[in-house]
Amino acid sequence: MRTDVAIVGAGPAGLVLAHLLARAGIGSVVLETHSREHVESRVRAGVLEAGTADLLERTGVGDRMRQQGMIHRGIELSFGGRRHRVDLAGLTGRTITVYGQQEVVRDLIAARLGAGLPLIFDAKSVRLSGLDTSAPLVRFRHDGEEVELTADVVAGCDGHHGVCRQAVPDGVLRTYRRDYPYAWLGVLAQAPPASEELVYTRHERGFALFSMRSPAVTRLYLQVAPDEDVAGWPDERIWAELHRRLRTNDGFDVHEGDVLEKGVTPMRSVVTEPMRYGRLFLAGDAAHIVPPTGAKGMNLAIADVAVLAGALVTWYATGDEAGLAAYSRTCLRRVWRVQHFSWWMTSMLHATDRDDPYEHRLQLAQLDSVTQSLAYATSLAENYVGLPLDCAAAGLP
């Protein structure tokens, strides 16, 4: 097989990249180690930044998002038994859209397969070679046969545990990492949302987040220990703890319902530099991970491939490699700003493992500043709705 760009990974990064390249007439083959059913059912992030939603809509894959997604004009910070609203739209002129990552993936898969473009699921034993040459090679097994795919470029969009980053020789990449002393117990429940907007809660017993996926499904999170066993959290205990942490003096409380899914997610920050080796370009979780507090993971992945798509469009059209040469530097500037915002939100809202009344009071002072100072609130709002996305670089008008 031969293609222009070999894309490893059919998550949001890989699928958006393939979509943008197809619009510019650049060929690609997308390889995914899992089945289509597995990829489309993975419940992940659900908040789209303004730029992300705009990109999806302008490239023709946003119809269902606009029909089913929930536009939010603000978020709430809750502490001391009181809720405080941050007016995202009023402070920035932009909004966020609540629309599950798996729904974005479904829309992109349907568009690609509907156009008859190559998307290979169940691609096993993926191996990369020749990354420092002009014709890198991707080998994999599919339907019991060995397949070789030659390309001009390989895009590594296969996540933190994927093969692409591991294919880079030792000593080339440097990884910065922070593991947080807590995790999130996430719950998906068949229950109508109790609030029209997300509620971030700082509580002495630990952080809690109220979110939603639809008018009938609620998404909830509790701060727990990193080694927490989900088996120790029967439904009754989960609802009792959610009530304790999320209930406020004005009567706000969660609605209970059947628990559809629950699991524990570790909290960590990871950045790998550079995001390029030869003709291999890393994007999304293959290059960086942010704690979920700031709702940035999927958005950051799509920002990466918007930059990469723009650089590839220019390269194929003119032969100019400046954009490709600057890819890592351009992306990392945004990555580190998003890392800082996600760390800041995480540090401000989570209770520490040790009983530290000084740190507790510092967190309350920070929350007080954010809810009382226009400057602080504007900074949070600007970062939450998302840094500007360079749609022109991705070949969009």
Quick tags:
397 residues, alpha+beta, FAD/NAD(P)-binding domain, eight-stranded mixed β-sheet, six-stranded mixed β-sheet, globular
Report on this model:
- It is a single chain.
- This protein has helices at residues 12-23, 36-41, 50-58, 63-68, 88-92, 101-114, 163-166, 235-246, 297-318, 322-325, 327-349, 357-372, 374-385, and strands at 5-8, 28-31, 47-48, 70-72, 75-79, 82-86, 96-98, 119-120, 124-129, 137-142, 145-150, 153-156, 174-190, 199-202, 208-214, 217-224, 258-273, 276-277, 280-282, 288-289.
- It is built from 13 helices and 20 strands.
- Strand 10 and strand 11 form a beta hairpin.
- With 397 residues, the protein is α+β, with helices and mostly antiparallel strands.
- The chain is globular, with a radius of gyration of 21 Å.
- The strands form four sheets. The chain has an eight-stranded mixed beta sheet.
- The longest helix is centred in the C-terminal third of the chain and has 23 residues, at 327-349.
Main sheet record: 8 strands, mixed
Number of helices, counting only DSSP H or I runs of 4 residues or more: 13
Query: Which CATH class of the domain at 5-72 and 95-177 and 268-352 applies here?
Result: Alpha Beta
Distance between the termini: 33 Å
Q: Indicate the proportion of strand residues.
A: 25-35%
For the biggest β-sheet, the strand order reads 6-5-14-15-16-13-17-20
Question: What's the layout of helices and strands?
Answer:
Layout: E1 5-8, H1 12-23, E2 28-31, H2 36-41, E3 47-48, H3 50-58, H4 63-68, E4 70-72, E5 75-79, E6 82-86, H5 88-92, E7 96-98, H6 101-114, E8 119-120, E9 124-129, E10 137-142, E11 145-150, E12 153-156, H7 163-166, E13 174-190, E14 199-202, E15 208-214, E16 217-224, H8 235-246, E17 258-273, E18 276-277, E19 280-282, E20 288-289, H9 297-318, H10 322-325, H11 327-349, H12 357-372, H13 374-385
Parallel strand pairs: 1-2, 1-12, 2-8, 5-14, 12-19
Antiparallel strand pairs: 3-7, 4-7, 5-6, 9-10, 10-11, 13-16, 13-17, 14-15, 15-16, 17-20, 18-19
